[in-house]
Amino acid sequence: MNTIYALSTAPGRAGVAVIRISGEGAREAVTALTGEAPGRPREAKLRRFRDPESGAPLDLGLLLFFEAPASFTGEDVAELHIHGGRAVVAAMLRALGHMHFLRAAAPGEFTRRAFEHGKLDLTAVEGLADLIDAETEAQRVQALRQMEGALGKLYECWRARLVKALAYAEAEIDFPDEEVPGDLLAKLGPEIHALASEIAAHLDDGRKGERLRDGVEVAIVGPPNAGKSSLLNRLAGREAAIVSEEAGTTRDVLEVRLDIAGVPVTLADTAGLREAANAIEREGVRRALARAEAADLRLVLVAPGAGGDFSLAREGDIRVVNKLDLDAEVPKGAIGISALTGQGLDALEAALREKIGAAYEAQEHPLITRARHREGLSDCAASLARAGEALEAGRDAELVAEALRLAARALGRITGRVDVEDLLDVIFRDFCIGK
Ligand code: GDP
Question: How many structural domains compose the chain?
Fold first, then answer.
């Protein structure tokens, strides 16, 4: 039973629901439900769906049929666009469940098939998952780009160059007396160097892509009673707060998720600089301080009567004086606000938008979005460095080749394409060596 089906839209009452069927049996399933063959692919058809056993009508809806390989999964795919009532969806799923040649899809199985049939590489699969999870505009832009292959293409291009370099090294091993590949060092040195510096530049991205995916951390720090939680609540009330609950929120730190300039921001009142009464509180303070330290952006808040000044503030922090309504003095370079009356909040929000928007605006080059990519790239860079060293030291071509092979594999692991040998065959074919 290799034909799968599933409800592809969110469960629950809705105008329309889409059920997808993928695999060899998709055509047969459609015929069983509609009493006729799917007809021309990619053409929407109005069909009455019936229970194949009793003949009773289930719903009136649209049928879309995609013929392999021109479909999302690369297999025959049928999409049934039906009314999104709970009972309609349940009845359709029940009818499909009774067809012995179908089975319910496992989570992610449609996408898995798309990967297995070469429709998407792993980075595109991740992009698709991120696109579905995207909560803000900048996340959407990044995910869409990745889904459309921006990262995959970059890595495949590097991998192809590596494999080509590997082919030269292999040629040197297989045909040592041939003049053709020429001096290995002269041939490969510049290319290995170029690849290494391109990959290093890609790795040195300030983790922006990962931050955009996971959320940018902004910490409000300041002495007790400066108004940190008042400010947090104010901002949460004014900005679009993202409601989905983040797991792992510690109780020492009060936080809200906001959408600022299209970037998901976790705004945390680290409550950190309080005098701790006991060991548990001290631990809380320690964690809060560590969190503030690790934040991507800090908002340093002071207020008259609360003590503290901007001596804690560092370059890049946003300095805020609260309680303007109490005639607080605002030094140059700081923003005066009142969390109580809302005065000055526009200026503070503008400063936040400017800092965050500028740092995370769409980049010319695609960004690393997961630790998995970073690991693969670091492994690749390390192997590449070894290849370069072996080459410079005039070591055996075998050593150079082995390091290049590992470097190519490390990239292949990121995209899920590990067929170095296949690529080598192709490259060797137009190498015209020997004979
Ligand atoms: P935190 O300890 O830094 O989190 O400070 P809170 O947000 O708990 O505020 C401490 C006290 O200052 C509370 O009584 C607030 O109502 C008050 N407060 C906060 N912001 C303002 C403000 O802008 N003006 C005035 N007058 N009082 C404020």
Answer: 3
